[in-house]
Amino acid sequence: MLTLPGSFFAFVFGGLAPMACDSCEGAEAERFTRGFNTAHTVLHAGLAVAFVILLISWCLPWNERNVVPRWVLAALAPGTVVLSVLVFASMVPWPS
After folding, report:
1. d(CA 57, CA 3)
2. Alpha-carbon span 2 to 67, nearest angstrom
3. Dihedral angle computed from the Cα positions of residues 80, 33, 35 and 14, in that order, rounded to the nearest 10 degrees
4. For the whole model, what pTM was predicted?
């Protein structure tokens, strides 16, 4: 329930992050662009992993044997979104 809205806001945050370096010039802008491109790729991969985890939790058969794996995967999905955003924010060389 939190994974899809969280992924949307993470995607928006990642998309708006380049505005932090609108006033950057020269070497600082180049450093930010290189770091941002890598971090943005990592963010996309993390959000894709979160979606796949959520999809697997939905697709497991609805029987008594799969109750625990379904709950675990459903709980891991929003955690993966949060982890992706934290990794993204730590990888971007924010301007000072």
Report:
1. 12
2. 19
3. -10
4. 0.89
